Amino acid sequence: MAIEAGDFKTGLTVIVDGDPWVVLDFMHVKPGKGAAILKTKMKNLKTGSTQERNFNASTKFEQANIERKQAQYSYEADNVFYFMDLETYESYELGADHVGDNKYYLIDGMTVMLTFFEGAVLDVTLPDRVTLTVVETTPAIKGAPSTQTKDGKTETGLTLRIPQFIEEGEKILVSTADGKYSGRA
To answer: Higher model confidence: residue 32 or residue 21?
Structure first.
């Protein structure tokens, strides 16, 4: 189905130069002379790169057929991450370059969302917050203000700032958007 650039919406996925792109932001610009221009900010779903591009409002694009499936994270071996489709029990493998920093939030048995384009896995979408166990931190400093923080390391290798009162072995909530402490679990 062909879509004109003038009909773009945030979150729309289209094929540009053979790759699937998602529209992050757009703005219609009408110069004094000539046709309207659409200024867009788009993300390439294959490479993860973000670009600002301009299109004539009447330019036509093919809509990208993006599919999303729930999957369960199984394990990691030799920088390959294994996921299982919860409906068909099919297994998917993703390299460390595809998973990126999401590896710090993956726990065995966790349910995630996989994004597919033409049968290939493009992306892993995590829950907003995950529960991780603190495996390494310094003891609390007596008399320190309650707002003071210290470094803590989780079982996944994530290092973050945590409150003074958190001790080794405690479970904490961590935001997957920014990697910050969100509270006790």
So the answer is: 21
